[in-house]
Specification:
5 strands
């Protein structure tokens, strides 16, 4: 129900962020689960229970969850994911001493996979130029803070602490439902 509420409303029932279900454990690699459209972290319960029941997995990994309003534009949510991960690492390991945090695995389902992809992708200016030619972009005559805003949402560099990404049912080339009412 939470996924539906957060999809259909601009109001966030639970603030967008990365959540830990257990206390942070230094030395364990984070596996971050990113839910899809019309969903919530509850979608991952069965997988997390199965993985958590394996003693080897439990000793090596810790499970985190990114929750977001899936009704927002994907690019906006991708920036939110990236910034939430960076904040969480700075909070948990401000000195950068825990090497396991630099081996992060991000797992995304459906739309969550699109967000996940932008944690491990170097886009350069390609996304910007897909919307505007370099000449059009230059002609906008943006103030420095406006230029920073455009780059924040239009240029992505792979996060150095994300080592692996896993995609589950991710529509990398779009979705057949994009022309339906839901769009």
């Amino acid at each position: 129900r939470l996924g539906m509420l957060q999809f259909l409303s601009a109001e966030e029932r639970i603030p967008t962020d990365v959540y830990l279900t257990q206390p942070y454990r230094p030395g364990r690699i984070p596996v971050v689960f990113v839910h899809g459209t019309f969903s919530s972290p509850v979608w991952w319960a069965e997988m997390a229970n199965a993985l958590g029941s394996d003693p080897v997995v439990r000793r090596r990994y810790q499970f985190w969850y990114f929750i977001y309003n899936s009704g927002n534009p994907a690019i906006y949510s991708a920036v939110e994911l990236r910034e939430a991960l960076q904040r969480r690492l700075a909070e948990l390991d401000p000195k950068g001493a825990d090497a396991a945090l630099r081996e992060m695995v991000v797992v995304g389902h459906s739309q969550g996979g699109l967000l996940t992809k932008l944690t491990a992708t170097n886009t350069g200016d390609r996304l910007l130029h897909a919307m505007l030619t370099p000449e059009q972009l230059a002609s906008l005559d943006l103030e420095p803070e406006e230029q920073q805003f455009v780059r924040r949402y239009g240029v992505f560099e792979a996060l150095p602490f994300v080592r692996r990404v896993v995609f589950i049912c991710t529509p990398h080339r779009g979705s057949y439902v994009a022309n339906r009412f839901v769009q």
